[in-house]
């Protein structure tokens, strides 16, 4: 069964953005002895974030297919080039990772949630998604659809950076 066009688009956009950000989000060498940039901050249970940048306070509440709420140190990274979204936000805690990209530079605002139970994306153009391109923060109150189907997750989140 082929997923609806909207879900395929939700799945492709975040994957494409992550590929574009990978070269700019890494610092230092891959070996344990190398020096590099500061790592992303982790959640309270050791969850790690791949995004490097400035710290933010993130409040997240997930309901529906995933039931979880947390306040944790998030990360924001801004891009001055036009090959990536102008701002990227990320927070991880308790097996959940929320990643959001501001619209601009030819990119639509994007919200992606991954957990041990699956992945969800907020459809492009959904109401309730405000992601600051200058890296100052975000507010999300939107339903995320399961990328592989299944029940949705209501994502309510704020980042103050």
Please describe what this structure looks like.
With 161 residues, the chain is mainly β. The protein has one domain. The protein has one helix and nine strands, in the order H-E-E-E-E-E-E-E-E-E. It has one helix at residues 5-25; strands spanning 54-64, 68-78, 87-93, 96-101, 110-115, 118-122, 129-131, 137-146, 153-160. Strands 1-2-3-4-5-6-8-9 form an eight-stranded antiparallel barrel. A hairpin with a 2-residue loop joins strand 3 and strand 4 (96-101). The longest helix is centred in the N-terminal third of the chain and has 21 residues, at 5-25.
Which descriptors would you attach to this protein?
161 residues, mainly beta, eight-stranded antiparallel β-barrel, 1 helix, 9 strands, 13% helix
């Amino acid at each position: 069964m082929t997923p609806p066009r909207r879900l395929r688009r939700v799945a492709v956009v975040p994957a494409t953005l992550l590929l574009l950000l990978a070269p700019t989000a890494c610092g230092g060498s891959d070996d344990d002895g190398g020096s590099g940039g500061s790592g992303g901050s982790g959640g309270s249970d050791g969850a790690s974030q791949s995004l490097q940048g400035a710290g933010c306070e993130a409040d997240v509440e997930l309901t529906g297919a995933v039931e979880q709420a947390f306040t944790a140190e998030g990360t924001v990274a801004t891009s001055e080039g036009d090959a990536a979204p102008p701002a990227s936000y990320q927070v991880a805690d308790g097996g959940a990772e929320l990643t959001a990209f501001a619209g601009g530079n030819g990119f639509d605002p994007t919200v992606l949630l991954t957990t041990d139970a699956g992945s969800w994306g907020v459809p492009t153009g959904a109401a309730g998604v405000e992601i600051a391109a200058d890296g100052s923060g975000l507010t999300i109150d939107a339903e995320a659809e399961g990328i592989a189907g299944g029940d949705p997750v209501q994502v309510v989140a704020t980042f103050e950076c």
